[in-house]
Amino acid sequence: MKEFDLEKARSGAEVITKSGQEAKILLFDRSNKTFPLVVILENKTVYYYTEEGKFYKDKPSDNDLIMKL
User: Fold this and answer.
1) Is 46 exposed, middle or buried (0-12, 13-18, 19+ CB in 10 A)?
2) Contact 11, 57 (CB under 8 A)
3) pTM of the full predicted structure?
4) String of b and e for 9-19 (b: at least 16 CB within 10 Å)?
5) Distance of alpha carbon 11 from alpha carbon 44, whole angstroms
6) Tens-place pLDDT, residues 20-66
7) DSSP 6-68
8) pLDDT at 17
9) β-sheet bridge partners, residue 25
10) 6-10: long-range contacts at Cβ-Cβ below 8 A with a sequence spacing of 24 or more?
11) What's the CA dihedral at 61, 57, 32, 7 to 10 degrees?
12) 15, 67 in Cβ contact below 8 A?
């Protein structure tokens, strides 16, 4: 498992969730300080993430982002 890297993701590197779902970052600068990333999972549902790729601000989740190998 490769830890989420915001700069690599901005450069186009592929990301997935810890549970293995495909993830595509649609927007990096949403006007929300806590959850600025807009991400679509498995081409179905849109979610908001922290800059660290966290689904929740204060606890781990299988939906947290990691770098795809």
Assistant:
1) exposed
2) no
3) 0.94
4) beeeeebbbbe
5) 23
6) 999 999 999 999 999 999 999 998 999 999 999 999 999 999 999 99
7) HHHHHTT--EEETT--EEEEEES--S-SS--EEEEETTTEEEEE-TT--SSSSS--TT-EEE-
8) 98
9) 39
10) 6/51, 6/52, 6/53, 8/67, 9/53, 9/65, 9/67
11) -70
12) yes
- Residue pair 37/50 in contact (Cβ under 8 Å)? The answer is yes
Taking residue 2's Cβ as centre, other Cβ atoms within 10 Å add up to 12
Domain segments of the chain as ranges: 2-67
Structure tokens at 56: 């929740």
Residue that the structure tokens 């498995």 belong to: 42
Query: 65 Cβ partners below 8 Å, 6+ apart?
Result: 4, 9, 15, 16, 17, 18, 23, 39, 49, 53, 54, 55
